[in-house]
Amino acid sequence: MKLFFTKMHGCGNDYIYFDAFTQHIPDPEALSRRLSDRHFGVGGDGVVLIGPSAIADARMRMFNADGSEGNMCGNAIRCVGKYLYDHGMVQAQSLTIETRSGVKNLQLKIKAGRVDAVRVDMGKPELRPQDIPVLLPGDRVIGRTVELGGQRRTISCVSMGNPHCVIFCPQVDDLDLPAIGPLCENDPLFPDRVNTEFVEVCGPQRLKMRVWERGSGETWACGTGACASAVAAVESGVSPRNQPIELVLRGGVLTITVTDETVLMEGGASEVFKGEVEV
């Protein structure tokens, strides 16, 4: 059978999107493992299914490159909003998307009749260790020094629907992330594995970030990771609350605002090409 897809990215965090309204997608776990390969497949950080929802305008399911299903992806959800609007499946500039971590509200920014950027209400961050989860005592883990990946590291742990470990460091470009990332991802401290953000403070409202995503490796951007990094910076007293914080990623810039009630993320979304694949 043939499946039709659209390749899209948010700040270089690229996924292969399938319209699950009009076609049945068999075994998306295996499909993601096969198609994500950048030499023998389409190439991407994973696969995203866009389908019907009983509680929102659409439902998003995201599968990492290793086939594991993620709870939420901030860059992917912006692309889902763009897909729905640009393909005439929704007309409103405000819409809701169902994810495994709840329903998210999107505000679309239109330019020349197409979505240029999307603002997402990512919800309230979770700081309680048992709900991230991270196997450490206390009410939260902010600026705590622990043994992680074979070294003493100072970490902050946040869930934005999926688990994140934020590590502030002086020069993120100098890191050997392919060596460090898997050690952090699979450390016993994190029973569900973890996404790890390495963050360089360029100023109170400007942070530079590299990310190692569980199931995908280093990606050019991570929306939930950018939100987690901003939350960690605010909770650590590095960055201000209720003011925009620029997160400079390998693939572009996201703007994050941390309030008392929620975290707001704004960034672009781009369509790269369409195609079909035989499965």
Walk me through what this model shows.
- The chain has 279 residues and is an alpha+beta fold.
- The chain is built from 4 helices and 18 strands.
- It has an 18-stranded mixed sheet that branches.
- It is globular.
- It starts with a strand and ends with a strand.
- The model has no long low-confidence stretch (mean pLDDT 97).
The counted number of beta strands is 18
Report how far the terminal alpha carbons are from each other: 6 Å
Radius of gyration (CA) equals 18 Å
Please trace the helix and strand order, writing H or E for each element.
Answer: EEHEEEHEEEEEEHEEEHEEEE
Structural category: alpha+beta
What is the share of helical residues? 10-25%
Query: How many separate helices?
Result: 4
Please tell me what the overall shape is. globular
Outline the low-pLDDT stretches: none
Largest sheet: 18 strands, mixed
Mean model confidence by pLDDT: 97
What proportion of the residues form beta strands (DSSP E)?
35-45%
Describe the structure in brief.
With 279 residues, the chain is an alpha+beta fold. The chain contains 4 helices and 18 strands. The protein has an 18-stranded mixed beta sheet that branches.
Secondary-structure blueprint of this entry?
Layout: E1 2-10, E2 13-19, H1 28-35, E3 46-51, E4 58-64, E5 69-70, H2 74-86, E6 94-99, E7 102-111, E8 114-121, E9 144-148, E10 151-159, E11 163-168, H3 177-185, E12 195-203, E13 206-213, E14 217-219, H4 223-235, E15 244-249, E16 252-258, E17 263-268, E18 270-278
